[in-house]
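Budget justification aside, the reviewers requested a transparent look at the raw inputs and outputs of the sequence design task funded under Objective 1. We therefore reproduce one unedited record. The lines immediately below are the structure tokens for a 137-residue chain.
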């Protein structure tokens, strides 16, 4: 495993296990968001329960975030380095290619600060863009 995998796990105070290292490496090597099914298909053998727990732990620790794309499939992508267990700081749009169905984080397309009416409590904001990615164009 590469040094970046070990550094991330160490910085987040997570024990280094084979599954955590393999899953994190898959995210580091991917240019698009991954679903549980993507991970199951791309990793040689991973127990489903262990994979689910790994994904939940990574999300809770601020290593990955949900990359919503308007489908029923939950996908995840790497967080920015300043995310942690108390707060995610991934205020960017997600782009879904209508051709290859991949979902990509667009870090440079940020979600603007929104003013909401008094008494409303905003819990989540998402911008989902659909179109054809550069690889499919």
């Amino acid at each position: 495993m590469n040094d970046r995998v070990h550094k991330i796990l160490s910085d987040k105070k997570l024990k280094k296990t084979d599954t955590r290292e393999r899953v994190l490496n898959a995210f580091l090597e991917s240019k698009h968001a991954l679903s549980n099914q993507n991970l199951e298909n791309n990793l040689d053998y991973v127990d489903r329960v262990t994979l689910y727990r790994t994904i939940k732990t990574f999300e809770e620790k601020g290593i990955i975030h949900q990359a919503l794309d308007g489908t029923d499939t939950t996908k995840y992508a790497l967080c920015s380095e300043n995310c942690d267990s108390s707060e995610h700081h991934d205020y960017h749009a997600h782009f879904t290619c209508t051709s290859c169905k991949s979902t990509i984080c667009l870090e440079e397309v940020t979600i603007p600060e929104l003013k909401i009416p008094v008494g409303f409590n905003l819990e989540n904001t998402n911008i989902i863009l659909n179109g054809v990615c550069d690889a499919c164009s």
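Strands lie at 34-35, 64-66, 75-78, 92-97, 103-110, 128-131. The longest strand covers residues 103-110. Computational costs for records of this kind are itemized in the attached budget.
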